[in-house]
Amino acid sequence: MKHPITLGIVCLARKTFDYRAANEIFNTIKIDLEKLPQVECAIWPELVIEIDEAQKAARFLAQKRIDALVCISGTFHLGHLLLELHKLLPVPVLLWGLPELPYDGGKIRLNSVCGVNLNASNLYKAGIRNYHAIVSPTIDEDWIDAIRVRTALSRAHVGIAGFRAHGFFNLGIRDLDAYQQFGVLIDHYELIDVYEHPVSETDVSYWDEQLRQNFDITGISEEQAQKTALLAARIHSFIQQEKLDALAIRCWPEFALRYGISPCAAMSLVQSNGTIVACEGDVEGALSMIAHKSLGAKMPYLFDFSQVDFQEDTALLWHCGVAPCNLWDGKCVRSLDTYFAGGKGVTADFVLKAGDISILRFDNCGDSQRIFLQRAHGIPMDKKLRGTYVKVKFDVPVKDVLEKVIYNGIAHHASMAYGDFIRPCELLGRINGWQIIQ
After folding, report:
1. Domain chopping of the chain, boundaries
2. Is 409 helix (H, G, I), strand (E, B) or coil?
3. What are phi and psi of 196, to 5 degrees?
4. Is 321 in a helix, a strand, or coil?
5. What is the pLDDT of residue 387?
6. Is 429 exposed, middle or buried, given 0-12, 13-18 or 19+ CB atoms closer than 10 A?
7. CA 304 from centroid of its chain's CA atoms
8. Mean per-residue pLDDT for 197-206?
9. Taking Cα atoms as reference points, which of 435, 415, 413, 417 lies closest to residue 426?
10. What is the spatial distance between Cα 238 and Cα 62, in angstroms, rounded to a whole number?
11. Closest CA to 417 of 278, 295, 311, 328
12. Longest C-alpha distance within the chain, in Å?
């Protein structure tokens, strides 16, 4: 399910144009907007024509705590109006222009596009760049989805257990940079808080049943199977108790040494119910997964851009065995293995299903925030490796994708989700002033 948001709606006009026709169009738009799923519309019901009307509308919408403002240029209008609204509503703005109506006696009736141009110029020259403009009879739902992501991130409660994985300096994140860019505060926990978290026997039994239903466990010992079920129960219960939207875990090297197994298979189980768990202490990976989930993706997967075949023009999106187990291709045997961490791995092994894939990585570099995006298509393959993986073809040559990653220093993890979620993320990058790499 997509993340819910609240949009403020206003329609600006001027009586020197056909404001009555604009009002009729606005009435139709209001009906259409109320049908949008997971969107609450706070609508100022009348045309905003005078400055004092804009001030009244701003006060009304400020009480509604809107996530973004939809500003319809019903006709051309005073430049004051949007700026008065923005004083109390410093949120992203959709500048919505209406297609021109048939001329009436040689006179332009709406001049709506010019109103959009006026508003955009005023905002830009005032240093306000978080607007998006359209000329259309209907709203841009990709922009709405971009606002969903922005809102979900700003309201997310994200935790990190331990730290980033040993030597993975490129996954590091500064807490206050994350607050500045995403509006998120990161809570820190120790690994022991997770793997000694108290759970009931009922919870453990549930995850033990899930483990045995989903995996061939002949490759691990009974003790390892029990530890995996217990850890799945602990991770899930810990996230619920702390009211976390995502948890990044330093999953090695200490986990296997101190708990007895690595958490990969337990994380595979827990993620299959929509819970976001990022491996290797990757907070920006967790945020990327939150973004995908806010757009309606059910089970994002944090992968390594692992192998490329330039002749075949494919890549392998792989990780050591942590993908949600219900992303399985339905053909191979889902199994557990101990090849990792000196026999203490307990990783999931299976091929992911084929299908259209969107790739996203939020990635900081110094004072700059970037967003890496790619489209790919998962193709069938036989199970030849341990771990969880899918072979993909990109919309562009794999060599070009690899060069984008390497020569922009993008971190080696990214979130993949089945479906097309690229354009809302592009718009999010523009709204937030981030560098878009694709």
Report:
1. 5-139, 152-437
2. coil
3. -120, 15
4. coil
5. 94
6. buried
7. 18
8. 97
9. 435
10. 36
11. 295
12. 85
Fold classified for 5-139 = Rossmann fold (3.40.50)
Instruction: Provide the sign of the torsion angle of the four alpha carbons 287, 179, 41, 139, taken in this order.
Output: negative
CA atoms within 13 A on the CB side of 368: 11
Same fold, 5-139 and 152-437: no
% the chain with pLDDT above 90: 93
CATH 3.40.275.10 for domain 152-437, yes or no, is yes
Residue found by looking up tokens 């009002």 in the block: 23
pLDDT of residue 105: 81
Spatial distance between the Cα atoms of 416 and 392, rounded to a whole number of angstroms: 11
Amino acid at 34: E
Render pLDDT for 263-318 as a digit per residue (tens, 0 to 9). 999 999 999 999 999 999 999 999 999 999 999 999 999 999 999 999 999 999 99
Pairing of strands 335-337, 314-319: unpaired
Q: Which two tokens stand for residue 395?
A: 């919309």
Residue written as token pair 């990161």: 186
The Cα 234–Cα 364 span in angstroms is 31
> What residue spans of 138-215 are helical by DSSP H?
141-155, 175-182, 191-195, 201-214
pLDDT, one tens digit per residue, over 139-157 is 999 999 999 999 999 999 9
Amino acid at 71: C
**Bridge partner residues of 187 (DSSP):** 159
Mean pLDDT within 31-40: 97
The residues, ordered by sequence, that sit 6+ positions from 222 with a Cβ below 8 Å of its Cβ are: none
- The b/e string for 265-301 (b: 16+ C-beta within 10 A; e otherwise) is bbbbbbbbeebbbbbbbbbbbbbbbbbbbbbbbbbbb
Indicate the pTM of the whole model.
0.96
